[in-house]
Amino acid sequence: MSSHYNNMIAGDIKASGKLDVTAPFDDQLIATVDTVDADAIEHALSTASGLYNDRSKWLSADKRIEILTRLSHLMEENADRLVLISAQEGGKPLNDTKVEMARAIDGINNCVECIRNNHGEEIPMGLNAASMNRLAFTSHEPIGVVVAVSAFNHPVNLIVHQVGPAVASGCPVIIKPANDTPLSCYELVKLFHQAGLPEEWAQVVTPESHKVAESLVTDARVGFFSFIGSAKVGWMLRSKLAPGTRCALEHGGVAPVLVAADAELETAIPMLAKGGFYHAGQVCVSVQRVFAEKSIARQVADKIAEIGNNMIVGDPTLPETDVGPIIRHSETERINEWVEEAIKAGAEKISGTGKISDSCYSPTVLFNPPENTSVSCKEVFGPVICVYEYDDINDAIKRANSLDVSFQAAVYTSNLNTAMHAYKQLNASAVMVNDFTAFRVDWMPFAGLRHSGMGVGGIPHTFKDMQIEKMIVIKSDKL
Fold it and tell me: Is 36 exposed, middle or buried (0-12, 13-18, 19+ CB in 10 A)?
């Protein structure tokens, strides 16, 4: 029997309707969630803004540490339950969701470390006549109300990356989770409240329409807008932000990997397969374009295909499943259309049986798809890896850099000079050497460039963005 989640707006707010949340694997109804109208959004904003504007209500650093420390323990106690909910609603296989849960708990601990290490700096004075008899230093204050709009693909960890730093920095936060995967967010914020965070400091909303959601994001009371999702939506919302609202946008990429002939293929190929097929390829830095030196390119494609063929595709809640469903049936069909387009244009299909069901797509490897096909120039966001052969690494780099997206990239080689050349020449915010493009730890900078995003993610970086640096200058004849 499905459950129901009430809206999490502080106050007696009536729902305007309800949203059905179904499992992407089999369309089973998991739960329903309250939707809210513009009046409810106004109430949430007014509540959050009132907190921020009344400094007597701000949460002290020691209180925030206490809440987050207690939250970490609660997440450990509830881990199995949260993992199952997340796997059901999001489709990420159970074993991978367990890893996500462990990362999320560590992320909350990282938020505590951010508070403990938060400090200002002294600004040099007494250097000339104008600055004599003065002492200046900075401290940090919360930036204001945070509005966080999240994505479906990591429904626990992404919420931690957005809400954790907001709470750690002392900002009231309003979260709009993805409509496909809201349950993990509601459950996690319940734990925030159980850990001692007053309800009005973290509110969760599911707006009844895009128009209502836009009114939340673009309100002048929003100090910081955190967005994880499609570039089309992210850039549109940024264009409508109120003057002064800061933002961070995290979109997708079409991750390139260079594989030189001297690469250790025995270790590289399993990583490439995992990096491309993990969560059915629904990761913003998923391995998608593999440029391999001609002498080994076919071997690389065949070996990745072999690993993909041995992966079990199906129910994400079963421990033996390697690849779960695509989040929506329409996306499964789109992925299939893009693959068929590439094959008709001349790509060789090394592996993949296409649609296994309305929700599942088989791990697929394409060899030398033309550069103008969708799989070569757009983010597939599905379990599809394209392998291209090259003679000259500079030509491969040129092809890798040819798109308007730029996120993480990778190079596999045993030659330090090759690695450094790729690092210097690739358009990317991070280049992994002998590791896949999907590598991430939650404290490192994580940034989409160009069309792929704006600002820098990673818990300490988001924590810093959600604060202002405030300076005091003291003038005294005794200085």
Answer: buried
Q: Which of 250, 293, 331, 379 is catalytic?
A: 250
171 noted as active-site residue: no
pLDDT at 279 over 70: yes
Catalytic residue, chosen from 111, 171, 284, 360, is: 284
Q: How would you list the strands of the sheet with 222-228, edge to edge?
A: 202-204, 173-176, 145-149, 222-228, 246-250, 453-454
224-246: average pLDDT: 92
Q: Is 250 a catalytic residue?
A: yes
- CATH fold, domain 3-251+452-472, is Aldehyde Dehydrogenase; Chain A, domain 1 (3.40.605)
**Burial grade of 243 (CB within 10 A; 0-12, 13-18, 19 or more):** exposed
pLDDT in tens, 89-148: 999 999 999 999 999 999 999 999 999 999 999 999 999 999 999 999 999 999 999 999
Q: Which CATH number fits domain 256-441: 3.40.309.10, 2.40.50.320, 3.30.420.10, 3.40.50.620?
A: 3.40.309.10
Tell me: pLDDT of 2 over 80: no
Average pLDDT score over residue span 268-283: 95
Burial class of residue 318, CB neighbours in 10 A (0-12, 13-18, 19+): middle
Q: Domain coordinates of the chain in residue numbers?
A: 3-251+452-472, 256-441
